[in-house]
Protein: UPF0261 family protein
Amino acid sequence: MATVAIVGTFDTKGREFDFCRDLFDRQGVQTLMIHAGTRPATIPVDIDGSDVARAGGADLGELTEDRGRAMAAMTLGVTSIVSTLYAEGSIDGVFSLGGSGGTALATAGMRTLPVGVPKVMVSTMAGGTVSEYVGTSDIVMIPSIVDVQGLNSILQTILRNAVGAMVGMLAVERGHDADAKPHIAATMFGVTTPCVSRAQEYLEDRGYEVVVFHATGAGGKSMEQLIRDGYFVGVLDITATEWCDELFGGILAAGPHRHEAAIDARVPQVVSLGALDMVNFGSPDTVPAHYRGRNLYPHNPQITLIRTTADENRQLGEKLAEKLNRATQSTEVFIPLKGVSAIAVEGGPFYDRRADEALFDALEKGIDNEHVTLHRLDTDINDPVFAEAAAQALIDLIDTSKGTH
Structure:
């Protein structure tokens, strides 16, 4: 029988959580109730607030008057308890409901669990931006529609659906695939799709499974986390475009730690410069005023691209060199001399030879690490020759790495 950890503040939302516990019980799913509130729970629990506080390094009696300190301690306690329970095999998923505070508490614990473990959060915050709560996890965020306050008919309907979703996830067979192939991570954008698609075919023909991440900020972050979690034997990081948005204010940034995970985890990787010709914004009216005189390209009605300049490309080359200089094992970098994206080739709307050369030169001058090898190919990034060369280089790195372990 499956067991779900129900995490929440049972001092303020006891009725709502008890309603969900009863729904799970009717479906034959056991529950383990974790009270993350600082005041006494109004329903029976399995793990009390004092236990959560202790796991967070605090004494519950000292937290009741300081909300900020209480949130920090109880969040740490929830993450510790949830991860321990899962490691012990005591729980099969995590369920919660709440407002902003309850959502922050529960999702912190959910994020500690591997991809594939059922995680459902019914939240008043789910109608807006949820990246703060979801992070790089696969949490299912369900809008509560109404405030989580009282068991009105609308909330009851939402909670029934949410519990049903969790029960359905738990019912899915999770057997181990004995024929699983070694996984390779790859990054792709629309303008680098032909390259990654050909590389994917090449690698899969040789016994690998390629997991492609859309380089939209969230994609890069998710890939980096899964690299650290040990999912991949190699990384084909074709598309570095998230650095454009990180450095120049676009909407698809992956944060300052992009291109660090494979190096830190010593996972073989091949890197290229895909889509370093563009900064991403939303619809045309969202483009900042200081960019509006630039070379703009409407990718679709929701995305407007801005061509990077020679100076910006120099900064991008320097940033990528800075990251790659941290490598402590062989890393291959492939430079497509005839264009870093489908629209940066000769005749394309973003063709700018001077800007490209600034990128290439800055990268080459900035690399001072003997572990990093640069390859200048006289093709554009989407040429099948380029894709196959990068894929084969990664296979060679993986084979060499196996020989050193």
Summary: The chain has a mean pLDDT of 94.
